[in-house]
Amino acid sequence: MAHHKSAKKRIKVSAKRQEFNKAALSKIKTLVKKVMNAEDKAAAEPVYKEAVSALDKNASRGRLHKNTAARKKAALTKYLNSLAVAPTTPAKEA
Description:
This protein is an all-alpha fold. The chain contains three helices and no strands.
């Protein structure tokens, strides 16, 4: 247990920051899952933009390493582009 006033404050501040960081990272995970579970491009695009924004913000604030954010954005972009390329085969004529 901390005995000095400054140490007690550090414990409080650290706990508060830990909550913010945990919530932010949890939000990123949720957004990434939403994009990956989308089945059509129209539904995925708005969530994709929100996810990329959250990744950039958290990387700039030091919650995520910049390469981790870049890797996650690349995976999301690749998935989004695969939705666009999905072949739409017309009904087979006999």
